[in-house]
């Protein structure tokens, strides 16, 4: 498959009260259609800014960003976005939250909603309100809402960062199943090295501000992912060493 995302010499500078702050510096990246890519780096390295640019939520930058063969000029239904906060509308039911994101003229909206609630395991909660859901359930609704538009690319900005460890692991598993079933290109931004290695076929490691791509790792975990074993451990340790080296700290741990 060809590239679905092409980033060429991307630089982003913010104006912070008259002071110029460079968030991203000369980013070059290609992402293949149907792949799963993790982007990892410390706070303030610009990884979320890069995701927002790919998704068309930030349009002022230098360089070129192309998705689906077209230059990004704004948000598109071809690109879905999931944030750390589920951002459900509290006065709408689960079903109506998903409907809100769909084209009003679509005759098959009810069918689409049922299909995607089933996909995330929430068929019995279509009439519930967000306040009646756990954090993990609310994030499942956010995933269903993003997928209902049949995007070519799904962007995930720390989607599990606010969840407890068990719920986080469960949703990681669900996300992989959806990726394998739907063949959507997924790009996740995370602080969690284990999450980045477990989910991503490639892990893009970014430097502190200004954000640059330091290294890109291929993770040979195969289609069936496991959190143990040589491929996972080797990839995780390489990335940990990269971060400890950056911080000039010894890389040691006891088991």
Order of helices and strands: EEEHEEEHHHEHEHEEH
Rg is 19 Å
Number of domains: 2
Which word captures the global form? globular
| Helicity range | 25-40%
What does this structure look like?
This protein is an alpha/beta fold and 255 residues long. It folds into two domains: 158 residues, Rossmann fold (3-Layer(aba) Sandwich), CATH 3.40.50.300; 61 residues, no CATH class. Helices cover 32% and strands 26% of the residues. The protein contains seven helices and ten strands. The strands form two sheets. The protein has a six-stranded mixed beta sheet with strand order 6-7-8-3-9-10, with helices on both faces. A four-stranded antiparallel beta sheet has the order 2-1-4-5, covered by helices on one side.
Descriptors:
single chain, 255 residues, alpha/beta, Rossmann fold, 2 domains, six-stranded mixed sheet, four-stranded antiparallel sheet, 7 helices, globular, disordered C terminus
Précis, in short:
The protein is α/β, with parallel strands linked by helices.
Per-chain topology:
Blueprint: E1 3-16, E2 19-32, E3 36-40, H1 47-54, E4 62-67, E5 70-71, E6 79-82, H2 94-100, H3 109-119, H4 135-148, E7 153-157, H5 165-182, E8 185-190, H6 193-199, E9 202-206, E10 213-218, H7 230-246
């Amino acid at each position: 498959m060809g590239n679905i995302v092409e980033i060429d010499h991307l630089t982003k500078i913010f104006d912070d009260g008259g002071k110029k702050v460079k968030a991203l510096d000369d980013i070059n990246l290609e992402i293949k259609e149907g792949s799963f890519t993790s982007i990892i780096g410390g706070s303030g390295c610009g990884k979320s800014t890069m995701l927002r640019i790919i998704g068309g939520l930030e349009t002022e930058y230098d360089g070129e960003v192309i998705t689906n063969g077209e230059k990004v000029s704004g948000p598109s239904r071809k690109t879905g976005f999931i944030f750390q906060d589920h951002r459900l509308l509290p006065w709408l039911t689960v079903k109506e939250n998903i409907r809100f994101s769909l084209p009003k003229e679509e005759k098959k909206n009810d069918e689409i909603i049922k299909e995607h609630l089933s996909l995330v395991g929430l068929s019995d909660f279509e009439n519930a309100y967000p306040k009646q859901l756990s954090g993990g359930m609310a994030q499942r609704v956010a995933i269903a809402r993003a997928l209902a538009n049949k995007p070519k690319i799904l962007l995930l900005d720390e989607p599990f960062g606010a969840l407890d460890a068990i719920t986080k692991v469960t949703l990681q598993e669900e996300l992989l199943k959806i990726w394998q079933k739907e063949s959507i290109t997924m790009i996740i931004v995370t602080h969690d090295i284990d999450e980045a290695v477990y989910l991503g076929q490639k892990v893009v490691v970014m430097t502190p501000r200004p954000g640059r791509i330091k290294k890109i790792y291929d993770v040979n975990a195969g289609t069936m992912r496991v959190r143990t074993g040589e491929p996972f451990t080797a990839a995780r340790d390489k990335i940990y060493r990269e971060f400890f080296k950056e911080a000039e700290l010894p890389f040691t741990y006891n088991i």
